[in-house]
Design goal:
Layout: E1 4-9, H1 16-29, E2 40-45, H2 51-57, E3 64-67, H3 84-90, E4 94-97, H4 100-106, H5 110-122, E5 126-131, H6 135-139, H7 143-155, H8 160-164, E6 167-170, H9 184-201, H10 204-209, E7 211-215, H11 223-227, E8 234-237, H12 244-258
Parallel strand pairs: 1-2, 1-8, 2-3, 3-4, 4-5, 5-6, 6-7, 7-8
Bound molecules: phosphoenolpyruvate.
Length: 260
C-alpha cells in the first residue's frame, strides 16, 4: 500500500516570521516520530534561508523538511549554490528537483535532474522529481511523448529499490499557479501512463511502490477528488501551502482517504 505524500512548496515566499509561524502550526498538527502511521507523509519545502528556522520549528514532529533545489556537485567554487551534503547536515529529508519553474527560468534539463536525483540518494535525501507537459503539448496531443521522455531521462540509471525511496510529481505546467486544475480524470490518466512506463523500465513491483503526486492548483476544495483517484498518491502544493489552514485541510483530505 503506497502512502500519500503531501508536500508544500513555498517557492520564493515567506519571511522568517511567517515561515516559523507556518512551520509551527503544521508541526503541531503532526506530533511524534517520523512515521506514516496514518498513511500520510507531510513535507514542507521552504526557501533555503528559512530551512534552519523551519527544521527547528518542526523538531519533535513527523513533518519532513525539504529544499526546493540543490546543485549537482558536493562542494566547490559554485557561488550561490547549495549542495546535498549541506542539506543532509542540516537535517533535510527531501529535495524538490526539476520543478517546472527551474526548467523554465533556469534551463534545467532531464540529464541535470537525473544527476541531482542520484546525488540526493547518495546523501540520504528523498528526491521529489517533477515532470509535466506545457499547454501547447497537451493541445497538440504530445503529452505522453513529453512525459515519457522526462520520466525515462530523469530516472535513468536508478534502480528499482530507489524508486521506493523517491517521489515523482506530475505537474502539468498549465495548471501551476494558474488556478486551472487538471480534472481528476486527466490527472489519473497521466499517472497510469507513468506507472505503466515505470513498470516497463523497471518492474511491476517498483511501479506499484512508486509514489506519484499530482501538482497544479491543488486546493482544499479539490484535493479529495484528486487524491481519491487510484494512482494519485498525494500532492505537491504551491500557493495553498502558504496558509496553514489550507495546507492542513489538504492533508486532512489525504488522511481521510487513507483511513477509509
Ligand atoms: C507547485 O509549485 O508545484 C504548484 C503546484 O503550485 P500551485 O499549487 O500554486 O499551482
Amino acid at each position: 500500500m503506497r502512502p500519500y505524500v503531501v508536500a508544500g512548496n513555498w517557492k520564493m515566499n515567506t519571511t522568517p516570521g511567517h515561515a516559523r509561524a507556518l512551520a509551527e502550526a503544521i508541526g503541531k498538527s503532526f506530533p511524534g516520530p517520523d512515521t506514516v502511521g496514518d498513511g500520510v507523509q507531510v513535507v514542507v519545502c521552504p526557501p533555503y534561508p528559512m530551512l534552519a528556522e523551519v527544521l527547528e520549528a518542526t523538531a519533535g514532529s513527523r513533518v519532513g523538511v525539504g529544499a526546493q533545489n540543490m546543485h549537482t556537485e558536493e562542494f566547490g567554487a559554485y557561488t550561490g549554490e547549495v549542495s546535498a551534503p549541506m542539506l543532509n547536515a542540516l537535517g533535510c529529508t527531501h529535495v524538490i528537483l526539476g520543478h517546472s519553474e527551474r526548467r523554465q527560468y533556469f534551463a534545467e534539463g532531464d540529464e541535470l535532474i537525473n544527476a541531482k536525483a542520484k546525488l540526493a540518494f547518495a546523501h540520504a535525501i528523498t528526491p521529489i522529481v517533477c515532470v509535466g507537459e506545457m499547454l501547447a503539448h497537451r493541445e497538440t496531443g504530445a503529452t505522453e511523448d513529453v512525459i515519457e521522455k522526462q520520466v525515462r531521462d530523469c530516472l535513468e540509471g536508478l534502480d528499482a529499490l530507489q524508486l521506493r525511496g523517491m517521489v515523482l510529481a506530475y505537474e502539468p505546467v498549465w495548471a501551476i499557479g494558474t488556478g486551472k486544475t487538471a480534472t481528476p480524470e486527466q490527472a489519473q490518466e497521466v499517472h497510469v501512463f507513468i506507472r505503466k512506463l515505470v513498470a516497463s523500465l523497471f518492474d511491476g513491483e517498483a511501479a506499484d511502490a512508486l509514489v506519484i503526486q499530482y501538482g497544479g492548483s491543488v486546493k482544499p476544495d479539490n484535493a479529495r477528488e484528486l487524491f481519491a483517484q487510484p494512482d494519485i498518491d498525494g500532492g505537491l502544493i504551491g500557493g495553498a501551502s502558504l496558509d496553514a489552514d489550507s495546507f492542513l485541510a489538504i492533508v486532512r483530505a489525504a488522511q481521510e482517504l487513507a483511513t477509509t
